[in-house]
Amino acid sequence: MTSEDPLVIGGQKLDSRLVIGTGGASNLAVLERALVGSGTELTTVAMRRADLEGGSGVLDLLRRLGIGLLPNTAGCRSAAEAVLTARLAREALETDWIKLEVHADDRTLLPEPFETLDAAEQLAADGFTVLAYTNDDPVLALRLEEAGCAAVMPLGAPIGTGLGIRNPHNIELITARAGVPIVLDAGIGTASDAALAMELGCDAVLLSTAVTRAEDPERMAAAMRNAVEAGRLARLAGRIPQRFWAQASSPPR
Amino acid sequence: MDVEVNGEDREFADGTTLAGLLEQLGTAQRGVAVAVDGTVVTRSEWQDVVLADGAKVEILIAVQGG
Known about the structure:
The complex is a heterodimer of chains A (253) and B (66). Chain A has helices spanning 28-38, 57-65, 79-93, 113-125, 138-146, 168-177, 191-199, 209-212, 217-237; strands spanning 7-9, 12-14, 18-21, 42-49, 68-72, 97-100, 129-134, 151-154, 183-185, 204-207. Chain A is an alpha/beta fold and 253 residues long. Chain A has one domain (7-237): TIM Barrel, CATH 3.20.20. The longest helix of chain A has 21 residues, at 217-237. In chain A, 53% of the residues are buried. Chain B has a single domain, classed as Beta-grasp domain (Ubiquitin-like (UB roll), Roll). Chain B is built from 1 helix and 5 strands. Chain B has one helix at 18-25; strands spanning 2-5, 8-11, 32-36, 39-41, 56-64. In chain B, strands 2-1-5-3-4 form a 5-stranded mixed β-sheet, with no helix packed on it. In chain B, 29% of the residues are buried. The mean pLDDT of chain B is 90. Chain A binds chain B through residues 21-25, 31, 44-52, 54-56, 58-59, 69, 71-72, 74, 84-85, 87-93, 159, 208-209, and chain B through 6-8, 27-28, 30-35, 38, 40, 42-43, 58-66.
């Protein structure tokens, strides 16, 4: 999007409304082309034990590309774990931004609502800029905002499913009442899903595997960039109301 | 003394500091965060923290992830 319509989270302006997760890319060269093609200014990274494979080459890449870091708490099952992981990420990466995610179980990876809300309150009180991953629950979204989250990030569908936005009305209920940016996070499968998220009033879209595991990640990244911009423009332009019967667009004879 | 590093028991000399442990392990200086017994230890304190027998040390780095 142009700088005339920036996304503002926690007082920071972002010209791109597309946040890309770095997970799932087959190698760093593929990831680099996808990130550049997406135009993103903010990307997620995960925190893991230093002895595990996977290295931190990704950090060097993101610093070289000048892309902001959004560490996540993926893998955490409790508020206590998420708070510790966030504090470690702040220490390691020198950012107080955190994508808070607390998963309830491995099969669905759905957000654990009580632990997420508890962690959000603790982290906001500790000075973090919290972007909270949550269910598409309009009540919980408000509670997270009240807890001090800088952005609320409802899922479209479970992580990695590519099922799109399963409950568009809930997303619209969330965006209609939100006082902080709403970022559609998880479930995006293809470009039309990202456009729909923006048409429903989301302020940004966060996605990973839809790009990194596409057959051509670089091309899909460009598709997502255009979809997010198109959806944003359509939202601002104001769509026509839906009608049951036809209405001629040519003048009557 | 025994110190648990990222879930593995390791032997270190008595009186080893956190900075000394990280140096012995060859841990990178940038992009790393350390917790001892569940509490984050900031970089500026690494020199000052003397590890106790049975301490649990977690060393984390950033990796690719959504």
